[in-house]
Design a protein that fits this description.
The chain is of the alpha/beta class. Helix content is 43%, strand content 14%. The protein is elongated, with a radius of gyration of 24 Å. Bound molecules: uridine-5'-diphosphate-xylopyranose (UDX). Uridine-5'-diphosphate-xylopyranose (UDX) is lined by residues 153-157, 213, 216, 220, 254-256, 258, 260-263, 265-266, 327-328.
Length: 437
């Protein structure tokens, strides 16, 4: 059944959701306050670099199933469901800034003259959905006919289209059976493909998202703490992760030790969860998350310290080559990038830092972007492998050995093949793995 769906907010989440909804067969209008972005989207151009998104936008803007506007009047009484895909950035206190969601409700609600379902997808502190419903009902001519439901997204950057079209699960926080029925029609295609469905109340839906993020972050910090243990005791954290990962109760995913997590979601979402836990007096959770964060930050500092130690204790005036700038491979996103934090810490201590990344643009004072790996490493006193782009695994250490001043590489992601680098005359240092040199 074809529904009329509006998607409010057209950045990373909104653009992907709008394209996905069109692919599910619905009529879709995306709304945003930025006219330049709307013009681009109407031409089928993606506002962000995301694998497979542009072809899908192109296909459905051409087919007429998908269009974009800046005018809320076009969607208010048109849509069967309004999907909120707005950002919830971090505010100075660490709490989520809900102003974009508030502004969208304040614009939409006064135009809702007939009963409407508003479906939130943004990651929010628990209690937000109920609060937005109250706000919308106060402002809407339709009053209590306006209902909120919550449907968290679990999109990974670089896999956002795949995760939208073939999600691991669909979570629907609903308050009525009519909302549930309508949303099952919205997701009829993935549900027909046996995607697990969890139906729950609003608060549980909001918490499911942040719990998923916090649990994954915990896995990463746990393995990084074990990496330090391996370092202290002479063990190998990669073999340890492989071995415990074979236990299906544990699983190998998100047990890659190294520089830890970054990006636009994990760090801000778990901080916002800690702040909300504090507000609600759930100290055990906020303390727990603070430990996860402290371990994560510690990994960045440890790699920076290790680098300084490897060049003899003073990095000032030394040339450092950094491979990788994005927060993870497959994206040009540098928000809260562990690689850039380490690079900036070294630049602050007077190092000359050259950064190469296959996609990301580096705009930080003190860091110079190199056009190739070769350019970055030429004359380097030390090389740092900080974001594990697959192409870095296939670099030729013998060739790079001819370009550098000193053959030392720190593998901050534990992905390089130690013996290959050693055979080419390199000292390769991997946190949590005993060096055989
Ligand atoms: C994450 C969640 O996976 C997604 O469900 C949520 O909606 C948004 O946040 P994303 O930020 O795209 O997605 O990145 P993800 O692939 O999950 O990686 C997060 C960070 O953890 C990256 O910095 C990555 O390098 C790091 N990481 C991941 C590790 O350090 N070790 C691992 O084993 C896995």
């Amino acid at each position: 059944m074809t529904l009329r769906v509006s998607v409010i907010g057209t950045n990373y989440l909104g653009a992907t959701t709008a394209a996905g909804m069109a692919e599910f067969g619905h009529q879709v209008i995306g709304v945003d306050i930025l006219p330049e972005r709307i013009a681009k989207l109407n031409a089928g151009t993606s506002p962000i670099y995301e694998h497979n998104l542009e072809p899908l936008l192109e296909l459905h803007t051409r087919s007429g199933r998908l269009r974009f506007t800046t005018d809320y009047a076009e969607i208010a009484d048109w849509a069967d469901v309004h999907i909120l895909c707005l950002g919830t950035p971090q505010s100075a206190s660490g709490a989520a800034d809900l102003s974009q969601l508030h502004a969208a409700i304040d614009t939409l609600a006064p135009q809702l003259t007939r009963p409407a379902l508003i479906l939130g997808k943004s990651t929010v502190p628990v209690g937000t959905a109920a609060e937005l419903q109250e706000r919308a009902r106060r402002l809407a001519p339709a009053g209590d006919g306006v209902e909120i439901a919550w449907n968290p997204e679990f999109l990974r950057e670089a896999f956002a289209v795949e995760d939208t079209l073939r999600p691991d699960r669909i979570v629907l926080g609903v308050q009525s059976s009519s909302a549930r029925t309508l949303l099952e029609q919205v997701y009829a295609i993935p549900l027909s493909e046996q995607t697990p469905l969890v139906t729950c109340d609003l608060a549980t839906a909001e918490l499911i998202k942040v719990a998923a993020n916090a649990f994954l972050a915990t896995k990463i910090s746990f393995i990084n703490a074990m990496a330090q243990m391996c370092q202290a005791a002479g063990g190998d954290v990669t073999l340890l992760a492989d071995a415990i990962g074979y236990d299906s109760r544990i699983g190998r995913e998100f047990l890659n030790a190294g520089l830890g997590f970054g990006g636009g979601c994990f760090p801000k979402d778990i901080r916002a969860l800690a702040v909300r836990a504090d507000e609600l007096g759930v100290d055990v959770l906020s303390d727990f998350i603070s430990s996860v964060e402290a371990i994560n930050e510690g990994q960045r500092a440890a790699v920076a310290e290790l680098t300084v130690a490897q060049v003899g204790g003073d990095i000032s005036g030394k040339r450092v080559a950094v491979l990788g700038a994005s927060f993870k491979p497959g994206t040009d996103d540098t928000r809260n990038s562990p690689a850039l934090t380490v690079a900036a810490q070294l630049a602050d201590q007077g190092a000359e830092v050259y950064v190469f990344d296959p996609q990301a643009v580096v705009v930080r004072p003190g860091l110079t972007q190199a056009a190739s790996v070769e350019e970055a490493v030429t004359g380097a006193d030390i090389v740092l492998h900080l974001t594990e782009w697959p192409e870095f695994r296939y670099l030729d250490p013998a060739r790079l050995a001819e370009l550098v001043r000193t053959r030392i590489i720190i593998d901050g992601r534990l992905k390089l093949h130690q013996p290959t680098w050693q055979q080419a005359g390199w000292k390769i240092v991997q946190i949590g793995r005993a060096a055989t040199l």
